[in-house]
Amino acid sequence: MHLHLLLSVLASATAVLAHKHHSRDLVLSDNDTSPLVKRDVQAGGACGTQANNAVCAAGLCCSDTGVCGTGGGFCTAPACQLSAGPACDGNQTPAGADTSNVPRPLFGSIPYGVDISHCSVNGKVAITFDDGPYLYTAALLDILKNNNVTATFFVVGNNGAKGMINNPATGYPATLRRMIADGHQIGSHTWSHQDLSLITAQQRRDQIVKNEIALNDVLGVIPTYLRPPYTHWTQDGLNDLKSFGYHVLNYDIDTRDWQGDYNVAETTYSTILSQHSPSSSSWISLEHDIYNTTVHMFAQYIIDAARRLNYQLVTVGECLGDPASNWYRNTTTGQPVDMNVLRANVANGGSSNGSGSTGTSTSTLTQASTTSTRSTASKTTTHTLLATALAVNGNTGANTTTTKARTSTAASATASSTSKSGGTRSVVGAGMGVAVVALIFAAFL
Ligand SMILES: *[C@@H]1O[C@H](CO)[C@@H](O)[C@H](O)[C@H]1NC(C)=O
Ligand SMILES: *[C@@H]1O[C@H](CO)[C@@H](O)[C@H](O)[C@H]1NC(C)=O
Ligand SMILES: *[C@@H]1O[C@H](CO)[C@@H](O)[C@H](O)[C@H]1NC(C)=O
Ligand SMILES: *[C@@H]1O[C@H](CO)[C@@H](O)[C@H](O)[C@H]1NC(C)=O
Ligand SMILES: *[C@@H]1O[C@H](CO)[C@@H](O)[C@H](O)[C@H]1NC(C)=O
Ligand SMILES: *[C@@H]1O[C@H](CO)[C@@H](O)[C@H](O)[C@H]1NC(C)=O
Ligand SMILES: [Zn+2]
C-alpha cells in the first residue's frame, strides 16, 4: 500500500470522526424578523421515535427531538422524522406531472445501478457540486462562466427548508435553467437528502420520483445521473436506481470542503492531481455549492489548480465519454433527449409543454440566460436579504440538531485502489459520504 494511500485513509477516517463530533447546523434565530425566514413554531405534542412513533397532525413536522411543529427547526430534512411528520420537507410533494410511469430503457454505454467512482477519459477533472441550488449557486454560475468552465450539479429538491426547487418564488427554477443554458450537467441528489439506506422502500422511491417531478416541471426532462446522499446505499437501493434508469455517481476526490478547512481541501485536491499524470488519469471531485467560501474562494482554486496541472475541466458525462443527450431522459418517450429541444426549453423559460409552474419566472430566466449582468442584478435583492439574515443570526438561536442519520459513516470509510491501463490510483474518500446538509432555516416562501 502506498504511503499516500495510507495517509489518505487515515485522513479520511479522521474526517469522518471530526464530522461526527463537530458538525453543527447553522440555525437562524427564532426572533429573526426577516420576512424570508420561516420561523419555528412549536405546536406541542410528542412524536416519532421518542413517542411510540406517534404521528403529528396534518401540516405539522416532527423534529429530530420528537416535537411537533412548523418551520425549519422542525421540518427540515433529513432531521425531520419522515414517518411521524406529515409536513417534513421529505414528505412534501412538488407540483408537476407524475414521472413514475416514464419508460426507462437503459440507453448508452455507461452502466446503470452500479457504483461509478471514476472517470474514463484521461486528462479530465469533473468538479461536482452537491446539495444545492442554494443562496450562492447563481454566483457560482457567474464564476464558472467567467472561467469558461462546465461542472456538474447534483441538486436536492427540497432540503434545509429552502423551498421546493420548482417554486418560482425561490428563484431556483431560473438557476436550474441557466445551468443547462451554460452547458453544465444536472444530476439528481434526491428530493430531500435522506440516507437511502435508512428509509423504507416506498420512501426511497418517493425520494427519487419527487425530484424528477420537480426537475421535469422546470426543465421538461429528468436526469439519468444520481448521487445518493452521503453516497450511502443498500443493494435494494441500487436495484431501485437501476430500475429508474440511473447511473450512480460516486467520486474519487473528496475535498471535504464542508468541514470548512480550505487549506486541507486545497491540499487534498492538488496533491492527488499532482501525483498523477493527466495522460493516464481522470477524476471526479466532490464539492458543495451551499457554502459561501466554496463558491467565492475554493471554486476558483480548483479551476486554477486543475489547469495548472494540465487537466481539462468537464462535466461528469463528458469525463465518462457519455454524449449529452444521454444525461437526461425524455419524459414522453423515455429515450435520450434532443439537446436542441432541451436548450430551447430553458431558453424559453418553460418546460417541454411550455406550461406548469415555470411560467412566472420567465422574465428572471430571460435575464439570466441572455445578459449575465442583468442576471446578477436580478438576484441581488434576495441574496442580500438572506445574506443579511445569515450574518445577523447565523451563530445564535435555535437548537443545534444532530445528524443522527450519520452514525454509520466510519464503517463505510474504506478506501480501495483500482488499477486501470496507465497506472494505479488511490481512491480518497469514496463511499464515505459526507453529511452536508445546510440546515440554514431560511425559507423563501
Ligand atoms: C428546541 O428546544 C426547545 C427547548 O428544549 C424545545 O421546546 C423546542 O421544541 C426545540 N425545537 C426543536 C425544533 O426541536
Ligand atoms: C472555452 O472552452 C471550450 C471547451 O473547452 C473551448 O473550445 C473554447 O475555446 C474556450 N473558450 C475560451 C474563450 O477560452
Ligand atoms: C421528447 O420526445 C417527443 C416525442 O418524440 C418530442 O416531441 C420532444 O421534442 C422530445 N423532447 C426532448 C426534450 O427531447
Ligand atoms: C405540462 O403542463 C402541465 C399542466 O400545467 C404540468 O403539470 C406538467 O408538469 C407539464 N409537463 C411537462 C413535461 O412539463
Ligand atoms: C460570501 O463571501 C463573499 C466574499 O468573501 C462576501 O463578500 C459575502 O459577504 C459572503 N456572504 C455571506 C452571506 O457570508
Ligand atoms: C433576539 O431577541 C433578543 C431579546 O430581545 C435579543 O437580545 C437578540 O439580539 C435577538 N436576536 C436577534 C438575532 O435579533
Ligand atoms: Zn449531499
TrEMBL record:
Required co-factor(s) are:
Co(2+)
**May I ask which residue range the UniProt record assigns to the signal sequence?**
1-18
In terms of superkingdom, the source organism counts as Eukaryota
Q: What sequence ranges are listed for the domain Chitin-binding type-1?
A: 44-90
| Low complexity composition bias: residue spans | 358-379
| Domain annotation NodB homology: ranges | 123-314
Instruction: Spell out the Pfam families in the cross-references.
Output: Chitin_bind_1 (PF00187), Polysacc_deac_1 (PF01522)
Q: What are the cysteine partners in each disulfide bond?
A: C47-C62, C56-C68, C61-C75
Positions of region (Disordered): 345-379, 396-426
Where is coiled-coil annotated? none
User: Sorted alphabetically, which keywords does the UniProt record give?
Assistant: Carbohydrate metabolism, Chitin-binding, Cobalt, Disulfide bond, Hydrolase, Metal-binding, Signal
Q: What is this protein called?
A: Chitin deacetylase
Q: What's the source species for this entry?
A: Sporothrix bragantina
Lineage, opening ranks = Eukaryota, Fungi, Dikarya, Ascomycota, Pezizomycotina
